[in-house]
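call fold(seq) -> tokens
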Amino acid sequence: MSNQTRKWSVLLGAAFLMATSAVGPGFLTQTTVFTQSLGASFGFVILISILLDIGVQLNVWRIITVSEKRAQDIANILLPGLGIFIAVLIVIGGLAFNIGNVGGAGLGFQVLFGIDAKIGALIAAVISIAVFLVKEAGKLMDRFAQIMGGVMILLMIYVAFTSHPPLGEAALRTIMPTELDPIAIVTLVGGTVGGYITFSGGHRLLDANIKGRSAIPDATRGSVSGITIASIIRIFLFLAALGVVSQGLAINPNNPPASVFQLAAGNIGYKLFGVVMLAAAITSIIGSAYTSVSFIRTFHPAIAKYENWIIIAFIVFSTIVFMTIGQPVKTLVFVGALNGLILPITLTIMLIAAYKKKVVGDYKHPVWLTIFGWFVVVIMGVMGVYTLIKQLL
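ret:
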């Protein structure tokens, strides 16, 4: 394999890792629920969230690449101990979501084969662990994310097509919405680039030795590609749900996304939902575990040495919690809102670091990217606090 081909493969892998980390069980449920409540106007929420997502990822991937340092090390350079604080937030959030991811994978197996969800969760954990037992785990993780992401995109397009959504109405309300929900924007942005997901692709590039100023174009392509992939999946799921809602069909509140697939494409659709849920959940388990551990690997040489085993322990612990306690819904909801607050904190650190010579040397960060980044910090900070207060009340 040529160096250029290998680089492109890693870039695509990093983009899919970020995208498939974002597309988990929560992503599928949130998109369906908000489409049900906002109708075609949810298209506007998706548009705004995509623009905010791009603003976040362009800044974060570039600064990580130029500095050649992981986010926690950048934070520790700015203020000793800050990196540890950020790492703790990221790992707790990643762990909580991973419990939900394991549960989602169990549900996927249950839909496909009729087996108990806990047995399905166990099988999913074994598959995820197997990725990190391979000698070249990074390459396998890249390839797995690409294949699963491709499968999800194709199935989403099929279900959207069968549900016959009102495309004209969707296009109009994407530009001129009749209603707006700030909580939906925070949830979407937090779920797509919040918490650990923000750094999954950037950290993957460092691990593949794609770094330095010469890698800025690669970081730009990778970050935009990741958002594009996740957005394509969300848009087609939105269209599928909109098609069902516009026909006046009732979506089952106990499992909204499964209901959409079934109403759009019958029993075949229900089975396809199982495939999508399984693909979304397993890739999210892998992405969450990998990125969460990447936040602590630089704190001690032993962590870096045994990184794959610590990732495996992370997956095992998430699975045990799900199988013994189940999905702590209130915790997951709270951490979801918390992810919306972690984002402005971590992005603020990145934007300050972009102008510190001890982090980036004499690199000059584009002014337009800085302005874009601070705009996202303010918007997400204000709406994140509002959302958190609403969740707690």
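The chain has a mean pLDDT of 90.
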